Amino acid sequence: MELLRKQYDYVRRTREILFSYCEQMTDDAYISEVEQYGRGSIRGMHFHVAECYAYWIGEFGLGRTFNWHLETIMNVAAMRGIFAEADQLVCEFLDRYAGMTETRIEGQYSGDKYAATPLWLFTHAVTHEFHHKGQIAAMGRMKGYIPPDLDLIMTDGAAGN
């Protein structure tokens, strides 16, 4: 799981760039819907990403439940708090399943029985975040905020430092 911890550190680094970008927005721009995008807001998309960690890593993987509410998150600082909880979940999950990446975990998904491995659950949550990271950047651009480069390029020029 040490490799997955390192990978998650990269995820958190790029998330920080996204949070810094979102902090340049007004709170209204962050929470209001983006008409050109269909429906939803940047805040809503961010919350959806956190919910994925809460469900797949927390509920399915660890048997925990969460009571987060989108309406209580009125700015990026509050969203950072939600992701701090998600980070703790991921660390707990990686501790619990250390050396057991292919262990079968059974649970419910959409009312049906479902089985997944810790590696699948982790991979799903991380790739889900990266998918929506691009959408958040596109939504911000539609509101007039030019996004930074959100690829996994380290600012010091060396990956992993």
From TrEMBL:
Gene Ontology MF annotations: metal ion binding
Binding site for a divalent metal cation: 48, 128, 132
InterPro entries attached to this UniProt entry: DinB, DinB/YfiT-like
Keywords noted in UniProt: Metal-binding
UniProt KW Metal-binding keyword: yes
Pfam families reported in the protein's UniProt record: DinB (PF05163)
Metal-binding recorded as keyword: yes
Family the entry assigns: Belongs to the DinB family.
PANTHER family noted in UniProt: DAMAGE-INDUCIBLE PROTEIN DINB, SLR1116 PROTEIN
Protein's name in the database: Damage-inducible protein DinB
Organism: Paenibacillus rhizovicinus
